[in-house]
Amino acid sequence: MPSAKLITELVESGEAGALHHAYTLIGAPGEVLERLFTTLEKVSAGTLAGNPDFYSARHDVFGINESRELSTRAANKSFAGGKRFYIISAESFTIEAQNALLKLFEEPTAGTHFFIIIPQVERLLATLRSRVVIINVEGGEKESDLAQKFITASPATRLKLIAPLTEDEVDPQLARNFFTGLEKALHQRIQNNFTDKSLIAASKELSRVQKYWNDPAAARRLLLEHLALALPKF
Predict the structure, then answer these.
(1) CA distance 209 to 226
(2) pTM of the model
């Protein structure tokens, strides 16, 4: 697989045709998304927040309905007349959805670029893999100290460890590092034992907690308490 450095080099070059129309990025979703957002902001010369030509969605399972929605979105013209980016992060993709994506990737609209983020490339059909550039996104920061302590602690100790994350003025970076650390830990263990259903279930629970975390109305303490009980001790 190409190195993670390749995606940065392709995007930063800004040369016509340098950016492929479809990528599959392998790694912990949170870490991959953060790095990809930063990279794409460079090529778009601005923030992606509020950009109508940028779409990102995260799913447990990406099915045929989600694939149809993506195809509908991709059929629209660019609002600003520039590049359009579509990012889909999922634990798995149904066979029907992958076959639909094959058709979408076979005749891409100029200036439209797709990014699939998934923990393991083996979860995609070989035919779909042949249509995309596959990049194994590894490295980056090590697991945060808080995440390291959390994954090896008992539920009772975990409840004490999460206290700093429930404060009113909690540093957003602290929470991001914590979730990224947990994602990386789970990702590594799933890679070593992909038949362990408890790890797969834990990864899905972590994704659900992250999905609701940034909601202003979210009960963050309850979300973390749920996580403390749902994640197995490593």
Answers:
(1) 9
(2) 0.58
Structure-block tokens of residue 16: 């016509």
Give the bridge partners for 205, in sequence order.
Answer: none
Rounded to an integer, what distance in angstroms lies between the CA atom of residue 115 and that of residue 195? 26
Provide the CB-side half-sphere exposure for 37 (13 A, CA).
15
Q: Are 162 and 224 in contact (CB under 8 A)?
A: yes
Q: What is the dihedral of CA 143, 231, 187, 121, to 10 degrees?
A: -160
Q: Which one-letter amino acid corresponds to residue 164?
A: P
Contact present, 83 and 199 (Cβ < 8 Å): no
The answer to whether the CB of 101 falls within 8 A of the CB of 67 is yes
Give, for all 234 residues of the chain, the pLDDT tens digit: 444 454 555 554 444 446 788 899 888 777 788 788 877 877 666 667 677 888 999 888 999 999 999 999 988 888 777 788 999 999 889 999 999 999 899 877 878 899 999 887 878 888 898 888 888 775 444 446 788 889 889 999 999 998 888 877 766 767 877 887 888 778 777 767 767 788 878 888 888 888 888 777 888 889 999 999 988 877
Q: Residue 133 in contact with residue 104, Cβ under 8 Å?
A: no
